[in-house]
Amino acid sequence: MGLSFLSAVLAVVLGLSAALNTTQGTPGPEATTTQEPRHSGITSRILEVNKDIIQTLMEGDVAVPRKRNAMRCFSDANSCKWPKSFNGMVEVPYHISNYFYASEKAAIVGAMESFHMNTCIHFVPYTGQTDYLNIGSLSGCWSTLGRSGGKQDVSLSVYGCVSHGIIQHELLHALGFKHEHTRSDRDQHVRINWENIPSGNAYNFQRGNTNNLGTPYDYSSIMHYPKDAFSRVYGAETITPIPDPSVQIGQRNSMSAIDIIRINRFYGCWWVAVAQG
Ligand SMILES: [Zn+2]
């Protein structure tokens, strides 16, 4: 509660200073971190950005909703799905905070449009709908899992979260998708190195009773965590692909082909899947 309040106050203060800055795109040295990752490759920027608030989140960046058990998302068929419109499209209303610069809003909308091109998900501007995504720059990068009902926050901190892949990742959580490394069949594809995971973070690696939608385990998923996620020692692996440990995981560039197929299967958009071949 204190942290949320502090974040809100901080956001307001920073928002005011941003509003007073009339030169678009020159908010100060911190903002440069929104454009370039401090680490390239497999290091997860999400976990790094969230490291100070990690204890309030599940698996590093999934907010636990107050209204329902997030773990039901995949086991209870429609509990967290966004509804289909009469035309078969799944409309997800959103509101983007005015705290973001125009360039940051454009990045968020651009990530949304990447869903429009390949899936039946259609993000639409909020016009008073009951359920909608309230996208703001709170503390860190996080989302609730699936539709939680009413106004639900998605945090894309301007200090590290406003990049195409991270936006896609958080929007996928909001659509109901979990992290790949918690899949029911993950032990056939990755080894969890429990000795490298602090006991307080072990819950982030619990295997779930997931609906894998008939898709193969996807090392290239944008929902897969990197090899050193939550590591006790810097650089030590907590997740190792098997049998080939050199396989790359943890990319945050863009949704994989399988990520896209899952969206269409989860939401029953068979016609999009047919079009994709
Ligand atoms: Zn995540």
Protein model, in words:
There is one protein chain. By secondary structure, this protein is an alpha/beta fold. The chain has six helices and nine strands. It has helices at residues 2-20, 45-50, 102-118, 164-175, 257-266, 270-276, and strands spanning 57-58, 62-63, 90-96, 121-125, 132-136, 141-144, 151-156, 190-192, 239-241. The strands form two sheets. A seven-stranded mixed sheet has the order 1-2-6-7-5-3-4. The protein has a two-stranded antiparallel ribbon with strand order 8-9. The longest helix has 19 residues, at 2-20. It is globular, with a radius of gyration of 18 Å. Mean pLDDT is 80; it is low at 1-43 and 66-72. Residues 61-62, 169, 173, 179 line the site of zinc ion. The site of zinc ion has 5 residues, from helix 4.
